[in-house]
Each structure stands twice: as structure tokens, then as C-alpha cells.
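Dig into my protein:

:::
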Amino acid sequence: MDGRMSAVLGDITRMPVDAIVNAANSTLLGGGGVDGAIHRAAGPELLAECRALGGCATGEAKMTAGYALPARHVIHTVGPVWRGGGHGEDALLASCYRKSLLLAKTHALKSVAFPAISTGVYRFPLEQACEIAVRTVGEFLSDDRTLEKVIFVCFDAGTLALYQERMAGRRP
């Protein structure tokens, strides 16, 4: 992807990008994990704007301002809860990445940072989620020149290694 896709170890709430992606719940009103961290870092204005959005369906995405975050925007997407793999989870997860990227493109954003959507309390298998994320983002970038940088922000070294392996075309 000509260097436009990368992975880093870090805290998504500190990423100086046009938008960070929030692995949100369907209410968009905050929660645990990445969702809670983003809401805490952005400040109470984010919650107020999210209340006005009326929630979000699984596989969809909505955008707000970033408020106190270094990112100018937050793209909220609701990943699927893992229920064994026979309930459309792969397609819903891929949709989260596509819909988030389409929002970024629609708003002429140049840089987006993603967490590992659905891999926390929603229990999506990490290796499978990583494969879907890298493939979906790669396909989008191959067809689009709007985005200059997509970063997968990894919470731990093991997750970072998986993303780096997938981007290099290797399997662990």
C-alpha cells in the first residue's frame, strides 16, 4: 500500500490524526475499553454530541468532533459480538472498517487511526480480526487515493506483531 498503512504500539487517544476510530457500543454513550478511554479523553462534549446521534447499528459508523483529543474527529463504529462465527461476524467487522473509511473519505480526511475492533469484550478472535482489518483497509486503499495514512494502534506487542505480519503478507 505504498507505505500508507502501518501499525504502532500506543494509545489511540494520543494519536495526532484527522480521526480516530472508536470501537463503540450501539448506544455510542461510552463503555469500557477503547470506548471508555476515548470518551474520558475527549471530555463531556463528546457524550453530549453522541446522545444526539441516536445510536449506531452494528457494522455502521458515525462521526463526531474530537473535542479534547489530538484527533479532530472520532468515527464511532459498532463491531460485532463474536457468537462463534456463523452469524455474519466477518462481514459485519469488514463493514466497520469500510464504513469508517468511507466517512473519512467523504469528509476529505487524510489520516485515520483504528483500534482492533471487536477483539476486547466482544471476543472476536484476534488473528481473524487482524486478517479482516488488514485485508479490508488494503482493498480500500488500493481503490482510493484520498487517505494518506491509516494506522492500526495496538494495545500490546503481540497484537502489533500480528498486524505487522499480516501487512507483510505472512501468517504467524
